[in-house]
Amino acid sequence: MGKFVVIGERIHCISPVIREAMANFNPEPILKRAKEQLDAGATYLDLNIGPAEKNGVELMQWGVKLLQENFDNVPLALDTANMAAIEAGIQVYNRSKGKPIVNSADAGDRIGYLDLAANNDAICIALCSKHGIPSDNDERMAYCQELLERGMGLGMDPEDMWFDPLFLVVKGMQDKQMEMLEFLRMLTDMGLKSTGGLSNVSNGMPKHLRPIMDSAMVAMAMQCGLTSAIVNPCDQRLMETIKSCDVIKNETLYADSYLEL
Amino acid sequence: MPFKRMPQTFTASIGTVTIGTGEKAVTMGGENVLPLYSFDAPIANRPLIGVEVSDLGVDNTLPELAAFYAGADTVVEQAKRAATMPGADFLAIRLESADPNGANTPVEESVALCKAIADAVDCPLVIEGSKNAEKDSTLLAKVAEALQGKNVLLMSAKEENYKSICAAAVLAYGQKMGAESAVDINLAKQLNVLIDKMGVKGENVAMNVGSAAAGYGFEYVASTMDRVKAAALGQNDNMLQMPIITPVSSEAWSVKEAIVSEEDEPEWGPTEARGVEMEIATAAACLAGGSNAVILKHPKSVATIAAFISAII
What we know:
The structure holds two protein chains of two kinds.
Chain A: E1 5-12, H1 16-24, H2 27-39, E2 44-50, H3 56-70, E3 76-80, H4 83-91, E4 101-106, H5 112-119, E5 123-127, H6 137-153, E6 161-164, H7 170-173, H8 177-189, E7 193-194, H9 210-223, E8 228-231, H10 236-248
Parallel strand pairs in A: 1-2, 1-8, 2-3, 3-4, 4-5, 5-6, 6-7
Helix pairs in contact in A: 1-2, 2-3, 3-4, 9-10
Chain B: E1 16-19, E2 26-29, E3 48-54, H1 63-68, H2 75-82, E4 90-94, H3 107-120, E5 125-128, H4 133-146, E6 153-157, H5 162-172, E7 176-180, H6 185-197, E8 205-208, H7 218-234, E9 245-247, H8 249-252, H9 256-259, H10 271-289, E10 293-296, H11 299-312
Parallel strand pairs in B: 3-4, 3-10, 4-5, 5-6, 6-7, 7-8, 9-10
Antiparallel strand pairs in B: 1-2
Helix pairs in contact in B: 2-3, 3-4, 4-5, 7-10, 10-11
């Protein structure tokens, strides 16, 4: 399925620094975080502007141009509840390094995001859920099929739908982890691509434990065929694990400097 | 069901390296298909052929080779003659005598020879060192300085001496360099990574991933080249997208089939014909494996491989 695709999650309006930068159209903090993530090995950058009800169109276009002009048309995931803003972002998006990703659709209220992606020749992250967390893999698979059929009906290439199994927090949902991994295996067996907010797994854990738990999860998930994740690429242990797994999976050729590439 | 042709092209492509100057400059690499797969997409630049001239002079025990160089008594004269060889794209000067374990020709003498040849011919040049890593780090640096502006390719930087060759040849004097690894795919990539970290761009580097005469472990060469091209094209691995240049003659003409005399092995036939066959077989196999340039020495091999390339592309 190719090299693992790391989507850097750190340009997110939940961070006070980024929120302020977005409020004032101040490029510096955003460029700094983009550079840190790309230097650390991110392929895609997620640009999350939050609900952005008022100036979403303007803000998203500004963000897309800012990042692509400064970082050689870096491919982006456009992340907001404001659909018009995503569409506007795609209008100014340069595809030379990869299609834009629409983040994200689900089988419930957010299903229209799939139409948005299809209409704009974009990749779409498709959450295998409808109302909250699916109770088991049968439910996950039903939503996956629903999304897949709709996307294909709209003329999408299945490769452009990246299914999110919903990574679950270990603290509280420890008994659901293996089932989620089994679902990833099913997606892989169907030839589908996958992604998700992997660090959700370690939510609520002490800070020093999170990279360890995230790394273990990414390794197990990659073994089950996970093709991408939305993560913090500045987590060195996590990135080292991903690069090592790519070598073990024969997706990248080993060289002594492989961790520096 | 009718047959549907599905060309196997890649979004990634092999990088290009240009050597020489002016109208005679040549470019290797650039394709976005597997080696020689011109039926999938046009090959950007056909593979190149270099003619090797040793600073030890022509081997006069080979009658046809001696005849080609008849009357050319100095290495410079021989280089001028070699540059006229039909099918040749560039000249490869092999500074064999510089080897400290051999004649140990002083650096200044080797540099003077390269300078004299560069002044006498207008074709692109490749300069092959003594194969002694320590000597080559000085020798190739001095050659790079003396041939400034000629855009020559210096072979080769190895793990032991890449730093000085990167610094002198490419960064200081704008020449091109070869990166040599001995049939070791991981080292081939690692060396390119190290060279990249020195600030040398891919467009200045051709890889010599090693070779072996056909029948002498060539399967390792074949699998190495296959893996290099698969990573370069299929995985878009930019640390393996440099074009491959392979010195064939030094391997092919050193195995027993190309050396043993007809007196010792009468049923094998004339020595020279056997050497030519080894050279052709090895070069053709290298081209099929992914070499973007091969270095040969015999006019018959050069003519045959040139015909092979133009027939297949």
